[in-house]
Amino acid sequence: MDQKTTIYDIAKALDITAATVSRALNNNPKISEVTRKLVLETAAKMNYKQNRLAQSLRSGKSNNVGVIVPRIDSNFFASVIRGIEEELRPEGYHVIICQTNEDEMRQIENISTLLNAQVDGILMSISNVSEENDHVIQNVVDKNVPLIFFDRKKKMDGVSSVTINDLEGGYLATKNLIEQGCKRIAHLTGDQSLEIYDNRNKGYQKALLDSGLPFNPDYVFQVKSNVDAGRQAVDRLLSLNPPPDGIFSSSDFAALGAIQELKERGVRIPEEFCVFGFGNEPFTRFMELSISSVDQSPLEMGRMTAKVFLEQINNTDKIKIEKKVVLNPELHIRKSSSRNLSS
Amino acid sequence: MDQKTTIYDIAKALDITAATVSRALNNNPKISEVTRKLVLETAAKMNYKQNRLAQSLRSGKSNNVGVIVPRIDSNFFASVIRGIEEELRPEGYHVIICQTNEDEMRQIENISTLLNAQVDGILMSISNVSEENDHVIQNVVDKNVPLIFFDRKKKMDGVSSVTINDLEGGYLATKNLIEQGCKRIAHLTGDQSLEIYDNRNKGYQKALLDSGLPFNPDYVFQVKSNVDAGRQAVDRLLSLNPPPDGIFSSSDFAALGAIQELKERGVRIPEEFCVFGFGNEPFTRFMELSISSVDQSPLEMGRMTAKVFLEQINNTDKIKIEKKVVLNPELHIRKSSSRNLSS
DNA sequence: TAGGTTTGTGCAATCGATTACATAATTACA
DNA sequence: TGTAATTATGTAATCGATTGCACAAACCTA
């Protein structure tokens, strides 16, 4: 009853061979119109569904692509995945999701099981950079399985990547704060082993330098990307002498925490203190005191990542393409950094 | 160079047959310890990776599970998927993501391609209810492919589902508004063909009834789940005579829009007007005027959906299990519906 | 030492679809 | 009418792993 009909069943029904059925179904020009029609009709009648597994085994293409992210329940990653899925579905690919939870072992496991599953490519945002990881990732490259990094990448020969210009994002956000009149801008950064945070930090420093403002290392805190971390950072920042009058946070969540803490302490935003976040999380624009933030165009990033993969998989040359796409960050300037400047 | 080593390669290297290699790798007790060790060592040396496609074709199990959602970039669905992935990964399953974008044709397409790909099960939140869809979904059941609905389900024999008690959620939220002293509570609902909205609506009406408050059809609007829809609804609600003094919205986004519009019109929340949302989106607790909302425990829903699938797939009896899991909604009462009651 | 077990491997089919090559049937053309 | 060209289909191998059955060797047991 839940028997699946195969081309053999169709063949038997029509007293022909499976080869003919296969050819008819694949529009092979060598098949007569009569037979083709007969096969198609019978296939429909018998409710035939192609078995992709068999096809994949034969062709060596699974039509599956693995996507590895730290977690899926973050607006950013979910949006990237949406972009990837929308771009790959029309091309006949299925998207397999793997989460690492920022755990190195899981990342290694995921890569390994994806390779076992014969995925046609791996699109990933790395969680961790370590020797062992390097080894496994290099393995993917050696196996000639297209690998594309997005957002959180890793410097590797022969690996394409799609990122945003984090340095520019950090630069522009900081510049905005400076233009608003902030003189002592603090920075909340993240795990420095990840390029994204390092680059945002560099952008921040470059902006200070370009504007002739001093760089004060005491104003830079490495925090987790959550609300509490932002609150705690403010707690410590306000105890400094002099305290800062602005924050560029690499995380919207930390920026929110900072704002909450500042408000509780009676600091007026943006009049006395400006805040700029990063990530353009939905809540940043929903707040009554909306939060300025750098948009990473995750949807576009996902689409682009998928496109780079498609280019790579359809590339028949023996020369490997190494493509580095860098998207431009976009500033969303909102109330948290908008003083009414009259000058 | 990117040649993949197969069990035949290992067999050749050791001058034995592939059958023996396969058995050794699968810890078949009929293999001598000497051979087993030799095979394992050689496999490691040759960097052998099992080809899951071949294995799947033979066994008829792909170890892939398809998850169909309207969209992935929503906090709710992303969290459910997180739960599903975390529960299924340890069991050796991969999760394939499909989005329908609420488009019926795409839903049909997705189901179809997932079946072609020989997934071991389909977990879905339906986008649409139509004749054609019924047909395709029934097809899944007939093929004996485990099918589980989550959140947005459909009444179908033999299909398990995991939902929350939406009626109870609507009831409790409305009750809360009543307890706060609201006398004329409006309701923003969604597509009535979806059970979830219908049930929340029913819960709302039941709460009114139980409390002896009149039900006024003019106070019920069907809206899209976005901010603008909430604003427009308030625009119309306030023109009624008498206008309502509270809103229970089936969507957090509409609730947010409603609040924004009310504030702009100078209506004080929660003093003059209370609002209760549904979904417990992250922003609801981040707002300065935090929004009361019904939590759907999406993570738990995802986990439970995966568990029900596992039970079903591991069930060897011929009797089909039809399991209906209903999770309890949890109220998160926040400022938007918290008057300081002294009585 | 003959006959019966046990143990470890090999043989070959199977899962379902595809395709190079072979071949039969038909048509074309001189 | 005979031969070449064309057309449509069949044969069988292949993708990689698994497994029922067969079988040889070694080990027991009376």
UniProtKB/TrEMBL annotation, chains A, B:
PROSITE patterns: HTH_LACI_2 (PS50932). GO terms for molecular function: DNA-binding transcription factor activity; transcription cis-regulatory region binding. It comes from the Bacteria. It holds the Pfam family Peripla_BP_1. InterPro entries: HTH_LacI, Lambda_DNA-bd_dom_sf, Peripla_BP/Lac1_sug-bd_dom, Peripla_BP_I. Keywords: DNA-binding, Transcription, Transcription regulation. Residues 5-59 form the HTH lacI-type domain. This is LacI family transcriptional regulator. It comes from Flavobacterium aquicola. The lineage of its organism: Bacteria, Pseudomonadati, Bacteroidota, Flavobacteriia, Flavobacteriales.
